[in-house]
Amino acid sequence: MRGRTPHLLIVEDDAVEAMAIERALDRQGIALPRHLARDGDEALAMLRGGEGRPPLPSPCLIILDINMPRVSGHAFLDALRADPALRRHAVIVYTTSDADRDRFAAWERNVAAYLLKSVDDVELVGLTRLITVYTEHVALP
Amino acid sequence: MSPRPALDTIPSIGSRRPAASGYDELTSDALLRASGAALLVTDRSGRILAASEGAAVVYGTTRDVLLTRDVAALTPGDGGGLLAERVAAVAAGGHGGVLETIQARRDGDHFVAVIDVRPVGLDQGASTGCVLYVRDETVSRQRQGDTALARALHRATSVGLCSFDARGTITHWNAGAEELTGLSEVEAVGRPLTTIGGGPTGAHWRRLIRRCAEGSEVPPHDAPARHRDGSARVLHLNATPLFDETGRVLGGAAILRDVTRSREAQQALEAAARRLEAHTGELAAKSAALERVNGELDRFVSIASHDLRAPLRGIDRLAHWLAEELGDHDGADVRRYLDLLRGRVQRLDRLICDLLTYARADRLDATVTVVDLSELVADVASLIAPREGIEVVARDGLPLLCTAQVPLRHVLHNLIDNAVKHHDRDRGTIEVSAADRGERVEIAVTDDGPGIPDHLRERAFQIFQTLKSRDEVEGSGMGLAFVRKIVRSAGGDIEVADAAPRGTTFRFTWPRDWPREDT
Predict the structure, then answer these.
(1) What's the pTM?
(2) What single DSSP character describes residue B360?
(3) The complex's ipTM?
(4) Is the Cβ of A19 closer than 8 Å to some Cβ of chain B?
């Protein structure tokens, strides 16, 4: 069972982290269309389109960092869930923060998963697996 | 009820009275009858020949009834003889005199009577009878008794009692008042009451006098006063106006009690309460400041954990990717440098982690449970998994503690881990023992490793101090600083000593009962 091919939106302020995710995706041969936003503000602008650019096609699988300059992951989630046009997108949080506060806030906004970044990149492997499962087995909206 | 004399049944004996013979006799008889004074005229034997209206009132009967009786019957019980004898004696030419006796009214009530017995009808040296002037003294005797009681109380009580006239001049002054004020009765009586107020406090006493003079009640209250020795006193006053029988204000009376000390104590108490309140305020301010600092620490910790570590992760990844890109190309040196680079990155990452742990050391999970120390030691040892040949031993008799398990576990983990990590021989034993220290237990972790030289012991507890280079033994140098911070925040302390024959003993005290949070 397979829905439409999702677009991947990586929201990550650290370029090396973003590269690490892309490298891992490449390694796993995951060839989904990819988009990169450096903070929540930019991610919302890309999802909504404007200034001559079309909005990102639905469905989107969003890989979201929490600690980012300007619009943090939490503020992004608030705006996403409050917007009827965007609220159905699936969000996987991928962060260094293991604080209860961050975790609970994320789950309260109906994220699809909450993954912790680890030094040895074990969870990066987990992240690519999860993306594979979502694209191959999950019926996305 | 006293037995009532049955005199009413005696028939009228008007014949006993001699017939009036002339104007004087008629007049005196009329005067006698009409007199308000209680007068009785008797013959020598005590028979009543005439009685005044006053006598009828005193005895609660009528003149006619009195005329049927004799004096002996006026006295209740066996006392009658005495009055009759006196009457007989006076009539027989003895001297008149005053007799005090109990008399009975017709309704049976008794009264204290003072009876003046005088001879009458002197006829050639002998009298024909007596005239008795009877006065009911009951009420005045009671009054005397009351007065005597009042005087006795006035003198005897240690409570200050005084009275004053409407102008405020002291009229009575007892020993209690003397003691309270230092003014003797002689000094006080005749002086104005305002004297004991003295100086500026006099206004209060003038007001008191005025209220009493107006006949107004004065509620109990405290008044400033000055003792004769000059010291300021506080007197508690119960004052009331005094009236005479017609309701005219005579002045006032007051009960005085010295409450200086209790008022002082009260004031001291109030001052202490105010100070306490101020301290509480200060404490609250400090607590708020502490909370702010803690909040800042929290923010620092979260910034440090993300912002300091994120670039490190980037460096690590880049080094890793470089090594991957290098692939099979011959670049042994480059590969070695990259390994060293990653080693440093990991060390810095660990330092940051440990620094965060240290910063949070006194705010570990303080959930109190029953902790079996020997189980905890076994648990920690299995986590550390010491290399072959190194053994962690829990000595027999380790106690059960009611304590926060998490901080204690951190302390034991660090101490045992240190001992294992720094052990310099193939075989070794690390032993945990405990000794009773009253409210605390003293827990000792002893190893048979290389020991710590004297001059390095204090440094061992300082933050980021390692006694070996980090390339020899991987460690941030935070362990012991962390341990000491936890132990001290639990109210204990830690010391290090040589073990025999070699090695080191760390001894720390730990509360048997974990201090409760008061918030």
Answers:
(1) 0.44
(2) T
(3) 0.71
(4) yes
